[in-house]
Amino acid sequence: QNKKLMTVVSTRNERVFYTNGLNTNDTKITMKRNKFSNKFTKFPYICRNIVTIKEVGFVTIPEDASVWIDYYYDFQADKVEITKIMTIREFIDTLTNDELMQAIKINGFLLCYLNTNKQTHDLCLNAVRQDGRTLTYIKDEFKTEELCNIAIENYDAHVVYPLFDCALANIDESIQTFDMCVSAVSYNDSNLKYVRDDFKTAV
After folding, report:
1. Which residues 6+ apart lie within 8 Å of 111 measured at CB?
2. Tens digits of residue pLDDT in 19-34
3. Which value, to the nearest 10 degrees, does the dihedral of the CA atoms of residues 68, 13, 103, 88 take?
4. Nearest to residue 2, comparing CAs of 96, 140, 123?
5. What is the CA 87 to chain-centroid distance, rounded?
């Protein structure tokens, strides 16, 4: 998958860019910004921007297409062929274990689209290393003391997703340790309301 060319077909805010089949500057749904307005990319870009994407399409480039490098999106062309469209969840289900690990290391929030029965301890550990807020999506059986401590170190509820609760809200009291609670409160004092009662006085 990571060697295949792809594009964003639609986003979660219902913006649609492409349809199945041949897409040219004349058929492109959105307004043309320049001569080469059909953008396509590789696996890492899709992973980095996964929370904004609704559907992806696999791309082939016609032999008579003009292509140039786009330093943000990877490539642009005056025409592209969309051979298959998938939702993000469908796409993630096609990934191998190695591809999943590569994707998680790029963007831990891929975890929220992954079926929980496909979660592994290593995937979850790498997700919280990339962004501690992914702790929200991790199965309780993988929320070890080690994983939760890493999540707290990499947790910022005020960046990009202001509605995320603080870290300890996602950690059962049975897993909490005194040092974990001290660390969590030092990062964000909103964690205090989720600290175990027997730790609160000392924290």
Report:
1. 104, 119, 123, 124, 127, 134, 137, 138
2. 888 888 776 544 344 4
3. -100
4. 96
5. 14
Map 124-166 to HEC letters: HHHHHHHCHHHHHHCCHHHCCHHHHHHHHHCCCCCCCCCCCCC
CB crowding 1-27: b at 16 or more within 10 Å, else e: eeeebbbbbbeeeeeebbeeeebeeee
Hey, what's the torsion of the CAs at 51, 54, 56, 57, to 10 degrees?
-170
Percent of residues in the chain assigned helix, strand, coil, to nearest 5: 40, 20, 40
pLDDT, tens digit, 9 for 90 and up, residues 139-159:
999 999 999 999 999 986 545
Q: Which three-class secondary structure state does DSSP give residue 34?
A: coil
Contact in structure between 38 and 24 (CB atoms under 8 Å)? yes
- Is residue 19 helix, strand or coil? coil
DSSP character for 198? H
Cα torsion angle, 178, 182, 184, 189, sign = positive
